[in-house]
Amino acid sequence: MRSYSLIAPAKINLYLEIISDRPDGYHELTMILQSIGLADQIDVHSISTDSIRVHCNHSQVPTDKSNLAYRAAELMAMQFPEAFAQYGGVEININKQIPVAAGLAGGSTNAAAVLVGIDLLWKLGLTQPELEELGGTLGSDVPFCVAGGTAIATGRGDQLSPLPSLDNIYIVLGKYRSLEVSTPWAYKTYREQFGDSYIRDSDNLAARANAVHSGAIVKAVVDKDPGEIAQKLHNDLERVVLPAYPQVLQLREVFANQEGVLGTMMSGSGPTVFALFESQQQAELVLRQVREAIINEDLELFVTRTITHGIKVVSSV
Ligand SMILES: C[C@](O)(CO)[C@H](O)COP(=O)(O)OP(=O)(O)OC[C@H]1O[C@@H](n2ccc(N)nc2=O)[C@H](O)[C@@H]1O
Ligand SMILES: Nc1ncnc2c1ncn2[C@@H]1O[C@H](COP(=O)(O)OP(=O)(O)OP(=O)(O)O)[C@@H](O)[C@H]1O
């Protein structure tokens, strides 16, 4: 095969708790990550020159080396120079549907798809843990994007433990097109404001265990109880992003006041806000109500749902 098309789903954070900072400059986290139906399509194919080329239909997405998909291809070329020499270069087409810089792991899932696609193109036969490990060198969210489904993520977000799959919880996503939140800014601001409460004593296991409060939502996920999951949603980064972005706070409040919303929260470092629903009908109704409550063409709204997979191959030629 010389060409693969892959679906690269976005993620939301059902839970994000910051435990402490780390010597490597990252933060120690406890998260629950969830793949959702909103996805980009990534096409990868071999080309005769020994170069990496990226094309994208979205004007805000760079196509040079700063694109995470480009960096994923470059990493594969460096790790597997013989395969790169044998199969030649790679052309990557990104059909972007996931809002950019939105807290939905758009770049990370594109990178994950390129790792999976090149593994297939070059017949490397890498295992999922090997792909996840490579992904971790590109970004903290990339290993989850390879695996997908529902998972607890610890460490800097790259250590994954799968949870039972959550299928068909319906979701409305809201994002202001012109608002972007920088992930490094969000973590840095959090550290400046709340760093005093970090548990830095790595030997004090009891203190670290007490610092993690994810037990109730993990139980709700294991019980597959959407109402209970929605009650236990949590994201520490809301503490810095909501005060700095009043529009995001307002959107969250509008969601919270709609009938049928099980729960609402900001995803990752934002600014996307999501709300959870029992049915697609309720989700579509609330989308229309929010559109009427906030008359602003800058606000984009999507209905989607939880899904049980990460990167998926849809065709090969
Ligand atoms: C906000 C989340 O999307 C939630 O899933 C992730 O924690 C961020 O994942 P990501 O975008 O893949 O992040 P990376 O590319 O690894 O890191 C971007 C920047 O975010 C900060 N960062 C990220 C992850 C982490 N555990 N601690 C951090 O402090 C660091 O400043 C880092 O330089
Ligand atoms: N393939 C890509 N898709 C989208 N953005 C990319 C990509 N590669 C690089 N970028 C750059 O990365 C920045 C962050 O975009 P991205 O959509 O990945 O953010 P995000 O969803 O907030 O990520 P995360 O949830 O992992 O923190 C953008 O401003 C964009 O310039």
Automatic annotation (TrEMBL):
One BP annotation, GO: terpenoid biosynthetic process
EC number of this enzyme: 2.7.1.148
Domain GHMP kinase C-terminal, first and last residues per copy: 218-293
GO molecular function: 4-(cytidine 5'-diphospho)-2-C-methyl-D-erythritol kinase activity; ATP binding
Keywords, comma-separated and alphabetical: ATP-binding, Isoprene biosynthesis, Kinase, Nucleotide-binding, Transferase
Catalytic activity as recorded in UniProt: 4-CDP-2-C-methyl-D-erythritol + ATP = 4-CDP-2-C-methyl-D-erythritol 2-phosphate + ADP + H(+)
This protein's pathway: Isoprenoid biosynthesis; isopentenyl diphosphate biosynthesis via DXP pathway; isopentenyl diphosphate from 1-deoxy-D-xylulose 5-phosphate: step 3/6
UniProt domain GHMP kinase N-terminal: residue ranges: 67-149
Protein name: 4-diphosphocytidyl-2-C-methyl-D-erythritol kinase
Organism: Nostoc flagelliforme CCNUN1
